[in-house]
Structures are given as C-alpha cells and as structure tokens.
Design brief:
3 helices, 27% helix, Alpha-Beta Plaits
Length: 96
Amino acid sequence: MKSLYDIIKTPLITEKSTILKEKENKYVFLVDSRATKDEIKKAVEEIFKVKVMAVNTSYVRGKKKRMGRHSGKTPDKKRAILTLKEGNKIELFEGT
C-alpha cells in the first residue's frame, strides 16, 4: 500500500484554485497518477482531519517542447479537486 504522503504530492495554488476555495469550498491538489478517488479521499481526510464530500480528478497531459534542435515533453500530471463538507477548511491554504 502507498503512503498517504505518496498519494498527495502538493497543493495546487493558482488563481482558479483560489477562486474555487473561496466560493465553493473546493481545494486542488496534484496527486499520484495511479491513485484512485477513494485513496485520494482517504489520504486527505487522514492528513488534514477534514470531511471530504466529493473527489473529481482530471489527467493533464504534458506538452511537447523544443529548444533548438532538441525536443522533449513536460511531465503528465493528475490533479484532484476536493469538495469539503460545509464548515471544514484546510489550514494550509489559509493566511498567516
């Protein structure tokens, strides 16, 4: 079994994710590409001690990049958008 900290890689803090947090109580994380919704939900509930109502995931494919004659690709990513129960919040995203 994977560690809880292997499933949740990092919080994704962008303008869109900040708006989701403020208006709809949704938080966005980059997660392991092999993690399932149940594993993600269980990991966030145990790490942050909150109640997760829903988990939506999306798989973001990497883009092809070129530097002169050398070409490559940025890594693929999987992100999870978590809807928390009303009244719960993750302190990591709060100021101070």
